[in-house]
Amino acid sequence: MSTTSRKPDRISAMRAIIEQVKQELPLYDEDTFVCGPDNNCIGCPKKLMELVESEVSYWESTIERGVSPNFDDIRRFGKLCTNVKRGLVRNNRIPA
Fold first, then answer.
1. Mean pLDDT, the chain, as a whole number?
2. Quick check: is 26 in a domain?
């Protein structure tokens, strides 16, 4: 009897990343979309969050239409979200 786990299909993998992004990044927190008073940012957190929000919306609607992302799409989206999270930590917008 084998207990190997099945890998998720591409749509499930993308949905899992989207759910993780929604939990870990303050996508719908208004403070995230405002420039800091000192404008001393390393990368613009506001623009980074807008980019992630637009990608999340795009992939949610694409998956809803039944279009499956390819492996490169999943890798690219995951990498984008990782880099944005790193930028938010660097700018003290979220804890490390």
1. 86
2. yes
Q: What is the 3-state secondary structure (H, E, C) of 46-87?
A: HHHHHHHHHHHHHHHHHHHCCCCCCHHHHHHHHHHHHHHHHH
Rounded to an integer, what is the distance from CA 89 to the centroid of its chain? Answer: 14
How much is the pLDDT for 33?
61
**Sign of the dihedral defined by the CA atoms of residues 65, 66, 72, 77, in that order:** positive
Q: Which residue has the tokens 């949905």?
A: 15
Question: What's the whole-model pTM score?
Answer: 0.81
Total number of domains constituting the chain: 1
For residue 20, the enclosing domain spans 10-90
Q: CB–CB of 26/32 below 8 Å?
A: yes
